[in-house]
Amino acid sequence: MGLSTHVLDTMHGAPASGMRVALYSTNSASPNAAATLVKQFVLNSDGRNPDGMLYDHAALKAGTYRLVFDVAAYFKARGLALPEPAFLNHVGLDFGVADATQHYHVPLLVSPWSYSTYRGS
To answer: Which of 6, 7, 13, 50 is the most exposed place for a label (fewest CB within 10 A)?
Structure first.
Protein backbone atom coordinates (compact mmCIF):
# COMPACT_ATOMS: atom_id res chain seq x y z
CA MET A 1 0.00 0.00 0.00
CA GLY A 2 2.94 2.40 0.55
CA LEU A 3 3.75 5.53 2.52
CA SER A 4 1.94 8.87 2.42
CA THR A 5 1.67 12.10 4.42
CA HIS A 6 -0.81 14.96 4.78
CA VAL A 7 -0.33 18.24 6.66
CA LEU A 8 -3.10 20.41 8.05
CA ASP A 9 -2.47 23.95 9.29
CA THR A 10 -4.62 24.10 12.42
CA MET A 11 -4.04 27.84 12.88
CA HIS A 12 -5.66 28.72 9.56
CA GLY A 13 -7.95 25.68 9.33
CA ALA A 14 -6.56 24.66 5.95
CA PRO A 15 -4.13 22.27 4.26
CA ALA A 16 -0.49 23.40 4.60
CA SER A 17 -0.07 24.22 0.92
CA GLY A 18 3.50 25.24 0.12
CA MET A 19 5.20 23.64 3.13
CA ARG A 20 8.56 22.02 2.35
CA VAL A 21 9.03 18.42 3.49
CA ALA A 22 11.96 16.02 3.38
CA LEU A 23 11.84 12.24 3.70
CA TYR A 24 14.86 10.34 5.02
CA SER A 25 15.67 6.69 5.50
CA THR A 26 17.41 6.18 8.85
CA ASN A 27 17.78 2.38 8.96
CA SER A 28 18.01 2.46 12.73
CA ALA A 29 15.85 3.08 15.78
CA SER A 30 18.58 5.31 17.27
CA PRO A 31 17.80 9.05 17.33
CA ASN A 32 21.41 9.73 16.29
CA ALA A 33 21.31 7.40 13.29
CA ALA A 34 22.70 8.63 10.01
CA ALA A 35 19.87 9.75 7.74
CA THR A 36 19.86 9.37 3.96
CA LEU A 37 17.75 11.86 2.04
CA VAL A 38 15.17 10.03 -0.09
CA LYS A 39 13.25 13.01 -1.49
CA GLN A 40 12.21 16.59 -0.88
CA PHE A 41 8.95 18.11 -2.01
CA VAL A 42 6.53 21.00 -1.49
CA LEU A 43 3.00 20.20 -0.41
CA ASN A 44 0.22 20.84 -2.92
CA SER A 45 -3.05 22.74 -2.34
CA ASP A 46 -4.43 19.73 -0.46
CA GLY A 47 -1.40 19.56 1.89
CA ARG A 48 -0.08 16.40 0.22
CA ASN A 49 2.90 15.35 -1.88
CA PRO A 50 2.10 16.47 -5.46
CA ASP A 51 3.55 13.20 -6.79
CA GLY A 52 1.26 11.03 -4.66
CA MET A 53 2.73 8.29 -2.50
CA LEU A 54 6.16 8.85 -0.96
CA TYR A 55 6.84 5.16 -1.50
CA ASP A 56 4.52 2.91 -3.46
CA HIS A 57 3.72 -0.62 -2.28
CA ALA A 58 6.59 -2.21 -4.23
CA ALA A 59 9.24 0.28 -3.04
CA LEU A 60 8.39 0.54 0.67
CA LYS A 61 10.67 -1.58 2.85
CA ALA A 62 10.53 -2.40 6.54
CA GLY A 63 12.81 -0.05 8.46
CA THR A 64 12.97 3.37 10.05
CA TYR A 65 12.29 6.70 8.41
CA ARG A 66 12.15 10.41 9.22
CA LEU A 67 9.86 13.10 7.81
CA VAL A 68 11.03 16.68 8.40
CA PHE A 69 8.48 19.46 7.98
CA ASP A 70 9.70 23.08 7.53
CA VAL A 71 7.12 24.59 9.86
CA ALA A 72 8.62 28.03 10.64
CA ALA A 73 9.32 28.88 6.99
CA TYR A 74 5.77 27.86 6.08
CA PHE A 75 4.15 30.14 8.68
CA LYS A 76 6.52 33.02 7.88
CA ALA A 77 5.55 32.68 4.21
CA ARG A 78 1.90 32.96 5.32
CA GLY A 79 2.78 36.36 6.81
CA LEU A 80 2.91 35.36 10.46
CA ALA A 81 5.44 37.26 12.57
CA LEU A 82 7.25 34.58 14.56
CA PRO A 83 9.70 35.20 17.39
CA GLU A 84 13.39 34.52 16.77
CA PRO A 85 14.07 31.76 17.21
CA ALA A 86 10.67 30.33 16.33
CA PHE A 87 9.20 27.92 18.87
CA LEU A 88 8.85 25.27 16.15
CA ASN A 89 11.33 25.44 13.30
CA HIS A 90 11.56 22.00 11.73
CA VAL A 91 9.33 19.22 13.02
CA GLY A 92 10.99 15.84 12.60
CA LEU A 93 8.99 12.65 12.95
CA ASP A 94 10.91 9.39 13.29
CA PHE A 95 8.79 6.33 12.66
CA GLY A 96 9.12 2.66 11.86
CA VAL A 97 7.62 0.50 9.16
CA ALA A 98 7.28 -3.02 10.52
CA ASP A 99 5.09 -4.51 7.78
CA ALA A 100 5.73 -3.06 4.33
CA THR A 101 2.60 -4.76 2.96
CA GLN A 102 0.46 -2.33 4.98
CA HIS A 103 -0.27 1.33 4.27
CA TYR A 104 1.58 3.81 6.46
CA HIS A 105 0.01 7.28 6.46
CA VAL A 106 1.75 9.94 8.57
CA PRO A 107 -0.46 13.02 9.01
CA LEU A 108 0.71 16.18 10.77
CA LEU A 109 -1.60 18.71 12.41
CA VAL A 110 0.45 21.83 13.07
CA SER A 111 0.38 25.43 14.27
CA PRO A 112 3.37 27.67 15.11
CA TRP A 113 3.16 26.46 18.72
CA SER A 114 2.04 22.84 18.62
CA TYR A 115 1.74 19.70 16.54
CA SER A 116 0.31 16.22 16.68
CA THR A 117 0.61 13.15 14.57
CA TYR A 118 -0.64 9.58 14.45
CA ARG A 119 -0.60 6.60 12.17
CA GLY A 120 -3.46 7.26 9.81
CA SER A 121 -5.16 5.05 7.28
So the answer is: 13
